[in-house]
Design goal:
The chain is of the alpha/beta class. Helix content is 36%, strand content 14%. Helix 4 crosses helix 8.
């Protein structure tokens, strides 16, 4: 009989994945060339697995690792400004033990929350293709099912929203993406709520499209729903 699935098994398969030639080439190129600020660091330059509590009631789904963030540190949302926003919000909401994450061994712990991404390799121009999303989709689906206490999924941006909705039973026509839009969904026999949030990218945070109060509201709502 096949061994039962587990988050440990999913993580191992993600880290060793080479399904998408364009992403493999880009993540490794970035790891070789490096950014001047990190020229003395060894880049991870591999797919980046999810992170968090196996008993999580909340999942956060981002777009993909940043070239000089997760692709450098080997941990999702770690070592870049989007991650500073995310982990700050998780800390304020009580899901994280510290407000920042700068490297894999900095002591960060998540409680009741699991953070992952629609695509696991850093994409050129931060734009994965639909085929690359679909290649990663089984990993996200397995993580959702293995988190058997999951109640709420916060999706960061349209791309993550599309990726999550493809894996669950959601209303049709699908509600239009917008900050704090809620979508009732089902994963097999379980009821879930998807909460939409603008992605904490610099494009959104520097322009004021996403403020700290707006971001905190998404996590407050997740808490209220039992996530």
């Amino acid at each position: 009989m096949a061994a039962p699935d587990s988050l440990t098994r999913v993580t191992a398969e993600i880290v060793n994945c080479c399904r998408c030639p364009r992403l493999v080439a880009w993540r490794e190129q970035v790891g070789r060339e490096r950014r001047a600020a990190f020229c003395d660091e060894d880049y991870w330059a591999r797919p980046v697995p999810g992170l968090g509590d196996p008993q999580a009631t909340l999942m956060v789904v981002g777009l993909a690792p940043a070239a000089h963030g997760g692709n450098r540190t080997g941990r999702v949302f770690t070592g870049d400004r989007s991650g500073d926003w995310l982990f700050g919000a998780l800390w304020r909401a009580g899901y994280a033990n510290q407000p920042r994450s700068v490297h894999r061994d900095d002591g960060l712990e998540l409680s009741g929350c699991y953070v992952t991404a629609a695509v696991r390799c850093a994409p050129p121009a931060n734009r994965p293709t639909p085929d690359e999303r679909d290649a990663c989709s089984p990993f996200l689906g397995r993580e959702m099912r293995l988190l058997d206490r999951l109640k709420v999924v916060i999706v960061l941006g349209q791309f993550a929203y599309d990726a999550a909705c493809r894996l669950v039973g959601a209303p049709r026509p699908r509600p239009r993406f917008g900050h704090l839009v809620e979508v009732p969904a089902r994963l097999d026999s379980r009821a879930l709520t998807i909460i939409c949030s603008y992605h904490p990218s610099q494009q959104n945070t520097f322009t004021g499209k996403l403020t700290e109060a707006m971001f905190d509201a998404a996590f407050a709502r997740a808490k209220a729903l039992g996530g």
